[in-house]
Amino acid sequence: MNSQNTHELIVSGIHLDLTPSLKTYVREKAERLFRHEERIVRIRVELECDRNPAVGMQFTAKGHIQIHGPDMNAAVQADECHKAVAMLIDKLDRMLQRRHQLLRVKRNHPHAVELDAEIPKAVA
After folding, report:
1. Domain tally, the chain
2. CA nearest neighbour of 45 among 29, 56, 21
3. Could you list the residue range(s) of the whole structural domain that residue 27 is in?
4. Domain holding 84: CATH number?
5. CB-based contacts of 59, cutoff 8 Å, min separation 6
6. Is residue 116 part of a domain?
7. What is the pLDDT along the chain (124 residues), one digit of tens a residue?
8. In a domain, 24, yes or no
9. Does the first or last residue of the chain, that is N or C, have fewer Cβ atoms within 10 Å of its Cβ?
10. What is the pTM assigned to this prediction?
11. Closest CA to 7 of 41, 36, 30
């Protein structure tokens, strides 16, 4: 991570043991988000395993981005943990891109202002 930025990544497992390789995988994937948006304060990733016999192994990955402005949350489900992490990071990346696009459009196209008073004409 960059020394000038104070990014924080928190990875936690619910009903799931986090292996060092899984933590490394999440960290490598999340670096894309930190490179994409420098104003991210913290990313929290929660990985959950649901061992329902009727459905089989179901992994849920939840992501919470704390950023200057409104926080962003996303969740995905998949049958493999690594696949769920990849899908989650892709979803969060799309959310950040959409947020950036909306802010850029708002910045470049200010809203028109209606004035009630009549504007006097310049006299030459």
Report:
1. 1
2. 29
3. 8-108
4. 3.30.160.100
5. 16, 47, 48, 49, 50, 77, 78, 79, 80, 81, 83, 84
6. no
7. 444 555 799 999 998 899 999 999 999 999 999 887 778 899 999 999 988 877 788 999 999 999 888 899 999 999 999 999 999 999 999 999 998 888 777 666 666 667 677 777 777 6
8. yes
9. C
10. 0.77
11. 41
